[in-house]
Amino acid sequence: MADKTFPRGELLDRLRLIRTDTVGPVAFEQLVGLYGSAGTALDALPGLARKGGARALRIPARAEAEREMAAIERAGARLLAKGMAEYPRPLAAIEAAPPLITVKGHLHLATRPTVAMVGARNASAAGQRLARDIAGDLGRAGFTIVSGLARGIDGVAHMAALSTGTIAVVAGGIDVVYPPEHADLQARIATEGLLVAEMPPGTQPQARHFPRRNRLISGLALGVVVVEAAMKSGSLITARFALEQGREVMAVPGSPLDPRARGANDLIRQGARLVESGDEVAAMLRPMIEAPLAEPGRGDWTPPPLHRPDEAEIDRNRARVVELLSPVPVAVDELIRQAELTPPVVFTILLELELAGRMQRHAGGRVSLI
Question: Do the Cβ atoms of 116 and 94 come closer than 8 Å?
Fold first, then answer.
C-alpha cells in the first residue's frame, strides 16, 4: 500500500498522544493499532491508565499541540510521522522508532546510504584528522554522514561532509542551539544538510535526552564508526544501540596509552570491525546497501484495529501478570509463556501498567516493574 499524507487532525492527535508523559514509542504503536486512530486512543487513555493503577493522567490539550505545530513552522521545520513517505526508512525499521520527528533541511539526504560517526568531545589532533579524512572520503563515495553535533569528532565529521551531505540529530528542540559554539555549524546544516529532532521545539538538552538522540543517530545509519571514545562514553551507548538495531559497528584503533582510545579499542576487542579509512568502511557496508533494511508496518496512516481481549478476561488475569513482574527486566515472550495467557491479554495489561507509570520498557522487548 502506498504511503499517504496524514490529515492535520490525526497529526495533531498523534502529537498529543506521544507528548503524554507515560506514552513511549511502543505504547504509541500499540494504542494506535488497538484503536485504529490516535484520536480514539486518546479517548481510551484515562480508562486504561486507571486500570493500571494511575490516579490521574495528564493528556496535552489540542491547543498545546497546535502551539507546538506553530513553533515547528516558525522554525522553518516540518513534523514527520512514521508511515509518511518522507519518514526515513532506516529509522522506521528500528525497535521503538520515534512516532514523530521534526526535520529541517534536505530530506533526500536520509534516503542515501548513511554512516554514523561519533567519538570523543575532547578528541586529539590525530583523532580529528582521521575523522575528517574518513568522513570526507565517505561523502565523496556517496554516503551521507550522520552525527550528534557534539564537540570534537561529531563537529569535525559534520564539517568534512557539509559539501557532500550530513545529518545532525540534536538532543533538544530543533530550534535550540547546542553546544553554543556550534551555532554557525548548526545553521549551515539546516541550510545545506538536514537537522533531525525528537523533542519539542524550545526543549533545552538535558542528560536524559542524549541516549534518546543516540538511538536515532545509529537508527538512521547502516553502521557506526567510533573514533576515540573513553570507557562509559556516549559514543559507546551509540555503538550499543547500533548492535541492538542490527547495524554494523566499526572502530578506529588508538594508542593504549591514551584514555580517549580505550573505548574504541575495547569495541574492537569485543568484535567491532577495525577500520582505518573511508574505503574500508564503504567496503564493509556495501552488502547492506544491496539488501536494504526492512521496515514493518509501512503504508496507510490508519493501521487496522487489533482485537482487544474481553475486559473480564483482562480483569481476571491482571494480578497474575503483575505478580510475574519485578524490577529485573524480563522478555515479554517469557512473560506470556509463564503466565500461560494469550499475547493480546498480556500486551493489554502491560500497556495499562505503562500508562500508569508502573512499568518500564527495555531494549530487546523486555519489561520491568517500577
Answer: no
